[in-house]
Amino acid sequence: MMKMPKFIPISEPSITDKEADYVLQAVKSGWVSSLGEFITKFEEKFAEYIGVKYALTTCNGTTALHLALVSLGIKEGDEVIVPDLTFVATANAVTYTGAKPVFADVDPETWCIDPDDIKKKITPRTKAIIPVHLYGHPANMDEINKIAKEHNLYVIEDSAEALGAEYKGKKVGSLSDCGVFSFYGNKIITTGEGGMITTNDENLYEKAKYLRDHAMSKEKRYWHTQIGFNYRITNIQAALGLAQLERINELIEKRRQIFSWYKEFLQGIDGIKLNPEKPWAKNVYWMVCLVLEKDFRIDRDELMSKLRERGIDTRPFFYPISDMPMYHKSNTPVAHRISQRGLNLPTFFNITKDDVKFICDTLKEVLAL
Ligand SMILES: Cc1ncc(COP(=O)(O)O)c(C=O)c1O
User: Do 255 and 192 fall within a single domain?
Assistant: First the structure.
């Protein structure tokens, strides 16, 4: 029989018997929709892990962002500052509220929103800032919170890619008005699709919970006082999430180990930058990143296609959102440069050290190093 060439995906979830067992329990219990004990357990354990009072599940990270914004009162006519280098959901959620996303540049060292550029983008209409903890590294929260305080702005941490990451010893999602997480299949933990809002603010939590369920009156069932949403998660998804959360330390440690392998095999190559980790940060390395800081024989896109020909899946860094047709151009040179030169390398629980060595050897070969 012919041996199939190996294909290494960029990402895959780690699902064990524990996840299968919890999901089966949820299905067999009959509580298959958005009531059931796995939802409560998942929310309670999540809040405890992040170090906040409240955690509220949603059906994905985008709806968590939208719900957080609406619950904070963001509306048409407002402006919300977001980094230009992030997944499009960060900006789209702002647009759904009728507000305008305003794009700030990123810091060349952390690739997260640049506090100095936030200052330049503030107008009398600005109501909130959404820092994104990009690719698993926290944004510079002290600086951001300071600016927010001076200008009376809300801060929502988009922590979709950074569950478990720490800023000065505190978990992201606990450092501002609220945090938002995603549990899409490629995230640190998955529920298939799913999201979470974390906060210490009881009013915000109650408001978001109410709007999540079509703003149904607590006193009078099926009486609605406002236009709300159905942004609920299912008990089946929460069962998967709880099992994953019970494995969180192992899942994060593995990502850190995978990064250390890449670092070992790629060390000393001039012109290549891997994920940063500031002294004040714990990076969870959601995706191993590589930025071509100088010009090599081939560019980023050619590198990606050559790796693909050899069975290695990669993805490009996010494109600056301000360049996309539905948004407006913004002066964000750092985001533009990094975006063009960055790619993500395979990062998932079951990847082996041999796989990483193969990827790094292939990379060196195609870059002719
Ligand atoms: C930074 C960021 N924000 C928001 C989201 C949206 O999450 P979801 O895909 O669960 O809607 C994602 C992920 O996909 C993300 O990477």
Answer: no
